[in-house]
Amino acid sequence: MRSPLSVVETAAIGRDVRIDEFVVIRDGATIGDRVTIHPNVVIEAGVSIGSGVEIFPGTYIGKEPRGAGNLAREPSFERRVSIGPDCVIGPSATIYLDVEIGDHVLVGDGASIREQCRIGARCVIGRHVTLNYDVAVGTGTKIMDHTWLAGSMRVGREVFISGGVLTANDNAMGRAGFDPGIVRGPAIGDGAVIGAGAILLPNITVGAGATVGAGAVVTRDVASGETVLGAPARPRTKRPEAQ
Asked: Is 128 a catalytic site residue?
C-alpha cells in the first residue's frame, strides 16, 4: 500500500510494503518485504532496509554529515546505510550515512547515530541516545535513554549501559586539534554493566564483566570483573561477612 501523497523514486520495493503520507524515498534506496514506513520519513539513496522493518514518523535515514567548515575532524563516510531485518526505528530518529545496524535492533525515539557506526544484532539504542562517529556496539547490548557515546568508542557484546551515561574522547577538550591516535573514547568489554549517570573519560578500558556504579567518574582502567564506585571511581572495598 502506497499513499499518493508520498514521493517514491526507487523501484526497489519489496512485497507487502506500506508507505504512508509525506514519505520521501530517493532513487537508489532499497526497501525489503513487509516494511512499514509511517508518515514524514525520509530515506536517502544508498539506504538498504531489511524485511519486516518498521520506521516511525519523522525519521531521517541517510543523512549526510556536514561540518560547516569549522570542525577539527573532517567527516569521512561511505554513501550507504544497512538496516537489518525486523528492526524498529522510533519517531524522529536520525541515522547518518555509513551506518550498519544488525537484525532485531530497537532504535528509540529521537536517537542519533552518526557516520561509521556499527551496531550488532538484537541491540537496544534507547530514546534520545547519541552515538557519535565511529562507535561499534556488540550484539545484544542495551544502551538506555539519554546516554551519549563519544566518537571512536568500542562497546562489547551483552553490555548494559544505564540512562544518562556520558563519555568523552579528548582529554585536551579540542585544544590540541584532532589526532585519531589520541582522540578516542572508552572501550567497554563484554558483559560489563555501567550504572546510571556514570561518566567515562577518554581512552580508559572497562574490562569484561566489570560493574561501574551509578554516578561514578571513571578516570582509569577498570579490571575485568571489578566493581568501581565513587568520584573518582575506586574498587569497592569488601566488607567483613558479619556486616
From this structure: no
Q: Which long-range contacts (CB under 8 A, 24 or more apart) does 27-31 make?
A: 29/62
Cβ-defined contacts of 177-181 (< 8 Å, 24+): 177/72, 178/72, 178/73, 180/73, 180/152
| CA distance linking residue 14 with residue 1, whole number of Å | 11
CB 138, CB 120: distance < 8 Å: yes
Share of the chain above pLDDT 70, in %: 97
Mean pLDDT of the 22-43 span: 98
Q: What angle do CA 126, 58, 105 make, to 5 degrees?
A: 35
- What does the buried/exposed string (b/e) look like for 158-168 if buried means 16 or more CB atoms within 10 Å of the residue's CB? bbbbbbbbebb
Find residue 200's DSSP bridge partners: 167, 218
pTM of the predicted protein model: 0.94
Largest CA distance in the chain: 72
- The grid coordinates of residue 201 equal 573519560
Catalytic choice (38, 104, 128, 146)? 146
Answer for the pair 207, 188: CB distance below 8 angstroms, yes or no. Answer: no
- pLDDT for 238 equals 61
Task: For residue 207, count other CB atoms closer than 10 A to its CB.
Answer: 18
CA distance 239 to 177: 46
